[in-house]
Amino acid sequence: MQLLKLVESKVRVGIPLPWNVRNQDCTLLLAQGHVIHNDTQLETLLERGMFVDMEEYKAVEALQEPEAKPAISLYNRWTLAIDALEVILPHFSDAPDGLDAIHALADEILELANADADLGLFMAIRQDQAKHLRYGYSHAVHTAFLCGLMTQQLHWSSERTRLITLAALTMNASIAELQTHMAAQDYPALDRQRAQIRLHPEHSVALLEKAGVADSEWLTAVLQHHEQNGGTGYPKGISTVSEAAQVLRMADVFIARITPRQLRQSLSIQDAARCMFKEDKGGPLSMAAIKVLGIYPPGTS
Predict the structure, then answer these.
(1) Nearest CA to 5 among 88, 102, 78, 82?
(2) pTM of the full predicted structure?
(3) What is the DSSP pairing of strand 28-30 with strand 51-53?
(4) What angle do helix axes 191-211 and 216-223 make, rounded to 10 degrees?
(5) In whole angstroms, what is the distance from residue 165 CA to residue 57 CA?
């Protein structure tokens, strides 16, 4: 039995389930026709993990009568982008169309950024839909969005801007589920978790190479996105870091700082921007980010 992980947009509160819902071990959780009555119940189930037999899912989809699809709002497209990454990323290196799906998602994020950058900033800053449940995926989407805006401000070519978006979506491919778990845990990181985090750039690159990625700038950006000029970063402690990796790290750290977790409150946009400016010594990368954000970006309390 091949299982498909269900995401928030596939399950509707108050509507009977069209298929049986199982856990990751294939054990039946909810029978077809069961009704989830409220958002709290749905959030609990999503956190636990909801799966459906792929064949059963396809059979139900085939029976549904085709109908004109209503236009999807930009707001909902941001939520669907996170849904998509949650489905794609855990298996992209093994799925025949996994890499194509990552490319399509990068194009969608860039299109959303061009359509309404202010809405994208609002979604990144407020993150009302995350609630710690999908941090590993929402963080990557928001980081990819900010990288795209920064590199456009830096006048990168469209090809390089797309590449940094791809790198942001895949930089944490090996630890996305761990990140989600750690964002919600009410105790400090364990030693084994710290070890996984320290090695994740190399492990993520290995997954990309397995999927067929050969672009050296993409792979280098992912490998070096926690390195720092001067040798104080990880995993290798190199002293000279690629420009793409520097952009990726800056956006990654900024989004992490403005996102609340169970153990700590988020920094304000202004405080996070000050930290970024100080660490970059007022360089062109931090200036590009600050120009994109402005003093009071949409979503600022």
Answers:
(1) 88
(2) 0.80
(3) unpaired
(4) 180
(5) 31
Which string of DSSP letters, residue by residue, matches 2-22? -EEE--GGG--TTSB-SS-EE
Q: In 3-state terms, what secondary structure has residue 30?
A: strand
Is 277 exposed, middle or buried, given 0-12, 13-18 or 19+ CB atoms closer than 10 A? middle
Q: Output DSSP code: residue 187.
A: S
Spatial distance between the Cα atoms of 92 and 164, rounded to a whole number of angstroms: 18
What phi and psi, each to the nearest 5 degrees, are found at residue 21? -110, 135
Q: What is the pLDDT of residues 179-215, one digit of tens each?
A: 999 998 989 999 999 999 999 999 999 999 999 999 9
What is the pairing mode between strands 28-30 and 21-22?
antiparallel
Query: CA-to-CA distance for 240 and 224, rounded, in angstroms?
Result: 10
**In the structure encoding, which two tokens stand for residue 61, read together?**
């989809």
Rounded-to-integer distance, Cα 150 and Cα 116, Å: 15
